[in-house]
Here is the input.
Amino acid sequence: MMRAKSIHIDSGEYELKILFISPENAKKAVYATALLEKLVTVYPRAKVTVMGKMPGVALFGAAPHTDKMIVVENFAAPDVLKEALRRKWDMLIDAENLPLSVLVRAKEKARSVTPPFNEHPLKIYADMLSLNESDLNPFVWLAPELVRGAEKRLFKKEYVIGVAPFAEDGSFLWEPENFVTLLKRLTYPGNLFPASAIALIGFEKNRIAANQILAELPEWQRVNLVGGLGVLSIAACIGKCRLFLGGDNIMTHMAAVENVATLAINAKDADIIPRGRYTSVMQAENPTVDDVEQAVKDLWHGKLSQK
Here is the structure.
């Protein structure tokens, strides 16, 4: 089986010039943050040029030592090639395994490969740096103004349930009426999250689907965060949630790595399984509301027991 070409990293104070190529798949990019987190920890004086496609590349905009961001539409474009080939880099980290990486001049190179079936991206990225998966910690970097913006959008509410019930193509993975029933139960007096606000979170393509849930919630409770926000603004809002209910989308993965209590519904067969300290994935294909409510309770009590 073909493996990723790996490099060994050693701690040092060297002011390395690193070219970091983000995965095109936005969900993979969430876990590729672990690569950059490791490198800037080991090389605190490194200067990193990050290259990649939206929306995944946006995750690296506020990362420490990001010296330059290059947002691309086509990696084979002349200006992109010129930028990558204009200098000799100390290190190339290519999480997309691009052909141009063969041409890039670098003292050391680490390139990913297409993973075997069901192998998590963290395994591939750990192999790239000759590390164990446990050595890598995905991380979403947020500028202070983004955190303040999230507080304003959530009206500084202390108790918020984040919901992103969408598949990657924008469709529902679970019936909207099921979500409405579940949310009403969870926020009922005496349940886990009484009187909590409910924030629908997503991109413009999710607006029509989200409205099916928003329309069924009382005005005082609903917060519409669908459309008009960038990836990091969305991540900042997710970080303010106590609980996150999601599907097979980048929002669920961001919640997982931000250590929000995250339940992924109908994501068992997703190409990338959400992974985080307080993350659970529903095993049933079409669970009942009772099943999901119980899964939320198990998740929440499990999180409390880990603190």
User: Anything to note?
Assistant: Residues 5 and 110 are 6 Å apart (CA to CA). Confidence is low (pLDDT under 50) at residues 1-5. The chain has two domains: 17-135, 144-306.
